[in-house]
Amino acid sequence: MLSIVIVAKNEADKIRECLESVQWADEIVVLDSGSTDGTVKICREYTDKVFETDWPGYGPQKNRALEKATGDWILSIDADERVPPELRSEIEQAVKSERYKGYQIPRSSYYCGQRIRHSGWWPDYTPRLLRQGSGKFSNSLVHERLEIQGPVGYLRNPMIHYSFDDFEDVLNKMNWFSTQNAKMLLESGKSSGLLKAVVRGLFVFIKTYILRAGFLDGRRGFMLAVSNAEGTYYKYLKLLLLREEQSQKK
What are phi and psi of 95, to 5 degrees? Predict the structure, then answer.
């Protein structure tokens, strides 16, 4: 038995295609954290296991979802991801094996309408499929990762990932994620400065565009490298400001 677990909030424009791509599974579990756009109603068309909760962060929320899944195997996906038929077939074969406790799945990601084939975005292997009780997500607020205990295999067929629909989406997510990342760095005792923010941002641009051959992705590759650099710059700049705010309160 295979369970699908999804965490969501205000994903009405994407969640239906996601659910359509996994409706072949034995069970679909959705944890919604306060949607106001009809996401919950759409999800209930596909499953009766829709739970409305608060938002503790990506890692804790996905662990809640794992706890509610009853399948022998669990596949965790996001609302902006799709499981194409080729990957479905491979998953169905993989869960019959006793060799591995989990699997890494490559992702084919899109940036503003274009598939990114370089820039560090391909093949982008990420652990998503695991045997029940064989792992959990890190407790990170963002950039959570599934930690699997035991041997891990690799699937060949990719999951489709619609990362950013348009540049407005890029800017909104850049702002939100840089804030969350800054908070995580603050909690871990990290510090920052203006020079550090600039240097880190510049390095990320060089890594994305040159070292990881982002230039081969054309204009979108350049746009991606710049937005990656900006996100890093904002993250460390926000950390600097949070540190100053923290010091003033003492």
Answer: -75, -10
